[in-house]
Amino acid sequence: MPTTDSFRRPDLLRLPYDDYRALPAIANSDLSRLRDALNGRYQKPSAMNGALGLGTAFHTALLEPELYEAGQPGINDSLIWWMVEGVKLDPYLNDLLLRGTPEPSCIFTEPTTDTVCKLRADLVAPETDRGYTIIDFKTTMARDYNHFLAQCSGYDYDRQAAFYLDALQADQFLLVGVQKVEPFSLFTVEVPTYMLEEGRAKYLRLLQLLQPGAEVPSYLSAAVRDVRDGLTNDAE
């Protein structure tokens, strides 16, 4: 997405996660809820059971290790730290971890739909030899690089990449797949232009459906309404 003369990159905010969730704006996860509703997979949010997922535990250990709590039910702490160590053994990724800002949030207005949106990135490194870089870490069961690359479109990581990159006018978006089973390989994907274009089309279509005056087929109206209502009543 081209930069306009009037563009001002939104500020990166250091917010506790609960404060970020409370921001009255549309997040990428809200778009996933709408996607699921359109595909007949939507379920209204229910109270969380308190269980910590492996992906959340890994992200905390990697990006905010001071907040990591060992001994959580269902979490193999040794596995988590093995995966973290695997990332840090990669010289390029370790340099980004040392130089970047972990878990920054921002709020912005998406210009095409004039929608107030928000994001919380895993890691942002504004000054690298490849320019302003956003990095997102994904735990994966992918067998190899090509398998993970295919998952990037199938799991709508392309939509997330375009949503974040456009908001921050970044130069590149890196998706880093971290195998959660042996051999614990890393798959680093610099999201290419064609994938960003596909992701951009995805997020714009979903944002347009959320507009108050949007024309929605009758068989989808209840699902879209549920998501719209949820955005006004629920945290992300």
Give the strand tally: 7
CATH fold topology? Lambda Exonuclease, Chain A
Total helical segments: 9
Please state the CA-atom Rg, rounded to the nearest Å.
18 Å
CATH architecture: Alpha-Beta Complex
The amount of beta strand, in percent, is 15-25%
What number of structural domains do the residues give? Answer: 1
Instruction: Please estimate the helix content.
Output: 40-55%
Query: What order do the SSEs take from the amino end to the carboxyl end, as H and E?
Result: HHHHHEEEEEHHEEHH
Rounded average pLDDT: 89
Account of the 3D structure:
The chain is an alpha+beta fold and 236 residues long. It has one domain: Lambda Exonuclease, Chain A, CATH 3.90.320. Helices cover 44% and strands 16% of the residues. It contains nine helices and seven strands. Strands 1-4-5-6-7 form a five-stranded mixed β-sheet, with helices on both faces. It has a two-stranded antiparallel sheet with strand order 2-3. The longest helix has 17 residues. The radius of gyration is 18 Å and the shape is globular. The N terminus is likely disordered. InterPro entries: PDDEXK-like_dom_sf, Put_RecE_PDDEXK-like_dom. It comes from Hymenobacter cellulosilyticus. This is PD-(D/E)XK nuclease-like domain-containing protein.
